[in-house]
Amino acid sequence: MKRESIDAYDIPGRVAAYDADMDVMHPNRAKMVDVVLEFLPLPNDAAFVVLELGIGTGFFAKRVLEAYPAARVIGIDGAESMVEMAASRLGPMAERVDFRVGDFRELDRLIRTDEMPAAVLSSYALHHLDREEKLRVIRESVGYLQPDGWFVNADLLDADSPVIETRIQQVRIEGIIRRAASGDDRFADERSTRRFLDDMEAREGDQPLTLWAELEILRQAGLDDACVLWLEYREAVTAGRRSGSPSA
After folding, report:
1. Are residues 146 and 177 in the same domain?
2. Which residue among 43, 45, 86, 175 has the highest number of C-beta atoms inside a 10 angstrom radius?
3. 191: domain range?
4. Does residue 70 share a domain with residue 50?
5. Which whole-number Å values give the CA distances from 21 to 14, 40, 62, 218, 226, in the listed order?
6. Does 197 lie in the same domain as 129?
């Protein structure tokens, strides 16, 4: 991940439009959070800490705090503008969030070894990392997890087959144009939509991997029971469980 990937999300105009753009480009975002919350084996009334890698505008954190009234979130993001938006979105619930502005590739500078979250969550953030960076971040975050804690990632994928990837991209563009309903010049037609997506992905340093590579990274990071919980086209929720004793 390059510094430009972080800086791309630290522009007030980009942050202000982020959620509206996500609704157009990623309509399954709410469904993916539903899957994560349904899957996590955590009692609704339990007091625990969740670590979120890339809190963004607080979309995911808000759902976590609503579902678990006694839970707290450590929310990390490299873009201060995103953190400010998250705090605004969460309102009074922001008191239950420890916002930490920093690069989640440097967790040892941001997390204490005694904080031990019950779950590590991330959404639409880790695809900015290359394979080796992603493995290091996940492996390090696993070191903070409680025994039997889960790492769950809702993110983007690349298809194994160029033929399938081409068709998925066509479906993607058709959906964006339909949801935009001609109300946005960026998504007026296939050509303008493709140009916008290519420019955005280059600027933000997108590096999605295949599903099989994602699951292999979870295993190499020290997680058991690596699995895909949900998948539609180029979006997936993947997870793995930490077993054994916590790190010293």
Report:
1. no
2. 86
3. 162-204
4. yes
5. 9, 28, 18, 29, 31
6. no
